[in-house]
Each structure stands twice: as structure tokens, then as C-alpha cells.
Amino acid sequence: MHESVREVHVSSEPDSSYFLRLTWKGRGLASGFQLLLTDGQDAWRGDVSEAAVCEEAEELEMQTERYVDDLQRALSEPDGSASYSFTLTPSPPGRGAAVTLGYEKVQKDISFRLGSVVLEAVPEPAEAVRELLIHSLQRGDSLQQHNQNLEEQNQRLRAEQQRITAQLKRYARGKETLEAELFSRFVVVLNEKKAKIRSLQQDVTHLQEARSSAGQKQKKDSVRSEQTAAQEDDEYGGSTDEEPEEEQSTSASTSSTQERSTASPLDDSLKDITDVAPCRKRRFRHLGRPDTVVKRASPQSSHRLRSSAGSVERRRRRRRRRRSPERV
User: Fold this and answer.
1) In this predicted model, what pLDDT tens digit does every residue of 203-223 receive, in sequence order?
2) Closest Cα partner for 307 from 256, 237, 257, 260?
3) Over the stretch 89-136, which tens digit does the pLDDT of each residue have?
4) How many other C-beta atoms can be found within 10 angstroms of the C-beta atom of residue 129?
5) Which of 12, 185, 189, 302 could form a disulfide with 91 if both were Cys (CB 3.0 to 4.6 A apart)?
6) How many DSSP H helices and E strands does the chain contain?
């Protein structure tokens, strides 16, 4: 059972005030409802069936759901965006006589009747007024209890909000502290990495410089060796030619004179030593000319072999010249 009470004003009696009590079963007014109207002294009661509700909706050519919604707003809720007016006939109602309560909807200066109900006089209006007062008090108590529950819930939510706000502030401070600490650690690590990178770059630079200096030194050594080989080639090249006969004889006589002047008593014993030069000469003849061996070697090695071969040949010639006078 659902109940609602509201104050209504009758258009024919603007100074009067009536209280209308609506009672219905089920989820809405479509299944029928009961009305109780009182002015505080007299009371009238009436019922509206489900068939009457459907008939009124058909007459107004409205859907039943929409009609029930407008009907519930007019009979139970205070005036909203759309105003509702009530009429009571006869006006003023007679004591103990039946009255007809009509309700209309006024919207944009246009009014149309939602319906009407015949109300019978209640034999004991005091009891009806008492029931109305009891319902009003119960409704007030329930609303007050609901309001108190809402206040308690509001206080609880406010306390929860304060607790969450304080916790969030604490978390924010902790977050800032942690960020500062992590940033300081990151700065330290970053500086260490930068120092390591700088040291590695310096090592790479030193290695590159050492490699470049080593390459330059190697180039210089190769150039020097080539120059030295060229100089030796020039020196030996002039001495490998055949010496004139006069110079050879002069050098041979000079060498023999020096040998005789510097000879010691042991020279007699040295004369008995057999000369191995012819054997060496024959061995060189069997081996072949040095030029054929030099051609297979590299340019530098061929140059060195040529110079060494020329020096050996010059020594051999000198020895032959020195021995030739003695044999004669």
C-alpha cells in the first residue's frame, strides 16, 4: 500500500484549502486508486477503478502510461512545470452530501480535463482527519529519519573524504621525496657515466694518436731505409766497375809493400797455407752468376744481394792482385 498527501486549492474557493490523500496498490495508479478529501471538518471518500482509468485514457487519446504519469503528478506531487487545477461541485459542498472532484492540466494557457471522481461523505470525519494526521506524522517521522540517515552518511562521507585527502597529501609528499631521491641518484649515476664516457673518449683519442704516430714513424723508417739503400747502391755502383790497370798495379804494389814492411817472422809460416781462393772461385762458377739469383728476389733484397756480390767480387780481385806479385 502506497500513500501520499498533498494540499489542493479549488478554483471556485481561492481562500479555502483542502487536503487530498491518495492511496493505491501495486506499482502505479493504473490498477486503481482511492481518494480522501477533507477540509479539516468534513471528509469525502471515493474509489477509481482500473477500467475507469483506461476509459479516461481512451477518451483523451493518450497512452495509458503517459496518462497515469500525469494523473499521479496531479494527485500526489506538488505543482511542477505543468500546473494542475481542481474543481469541486457543488461549491461549497454541503455537509453529508456527495461531491465531484475534477482535476485538469493547464499547459501553455490550454487546459484539458484529466478526469473526475465522485466522493461520498464520510460518516465520521474526525476519524478520517485523525488517520490523515497520523499518516502525516508518520510521513514526517520517516522523512526526518531519512534526513538523519542522510546527515550521518554525509558526515561519514565527509570524514572519509578528509581521511582520503590527508592520505593523498601524505602520498604526494612521499612521492615528491622519492622523486627527489631518485633524481639525486640518477644525477650521480649520470655523472659517473659521463666521466666514464669522457675517459673512454680520451683513451680512444690516445690510441688513435699513438696509431697515427706509429704509422708516421713506420713511413719515415721505410723512407729512410729506401734512401739508405739508394745511397749504398750509388756508392757500390761506382766501385763495381773494372779499375784501370795502373790503379790496380799501384794498389797492388802499395799493398805488397805494406805487407812486406809490416810482415812479421810468422809470415813465413803463413806462406805454407794453401790458397782456397781458386776453390772458392770454382764454387762460385758452379753456382752461377749472382744476377740470376737476384732476379727472383724482391727489389730491396736484390739490391742488397747485388751490393754484397759486388763487394765480394772486389775483395776477390784485390786478393788476386796481392798474390800475383808473390807468385811471379
Assistant:
1) 999 999 998 888 888 888 788
2) 237
3) 887 777 778 888 888 888 777 777 888 888 888 888 888 888 888 888
4) 19
5) 12
6) 8, 7
Whether 117 contacts 75, CB under 8 Å: no
Q: What is the DSSP string of 87-138?
A: EEESSSPPTT--EEEEEEEEETTEEEEEEEEEEEEPS-HHHHHHHHHHHHHH
Give dist(CA 120, CA 262) in Å, integer.
Answer: 179
- Cell numbers describing residue 322: 796481392
Q: Which of 53-57, 110-114, 284-288 has the lowest mean pLDDT?
A: 284-288
Instruction: Please give the grid coordinates belonging to residue 132.
Output: 490523515
Single-letter code of the amino acid located at 197: I
pLDDT in tens, 146-181: 999 999 999 999 999 999 999 999 999 999 999 999
Residue 204 is placed in which grid cell?
A: 680512444
CA–CA separation, 249 and 239 (whole Å): 16
Structure-block grid coordinates of residue 74? 496531479
What is the CA 14 to chain-centroid distance, rounded? 73
d(CA 125, CA 127): 5
- The pLDDT, as a whole number, for residue 283 is 47
Count the residues in the chain.
Answer: 328
Within the chain, strands assigned E span 2-10, 13-24, 33-38, 43-48, 83-89, 99-107, 110-121
Which residue is it, cell 466522493?
119
Q: What is the DSSP string of 211-226?
A: HHHHHHHHHHHHHHHH
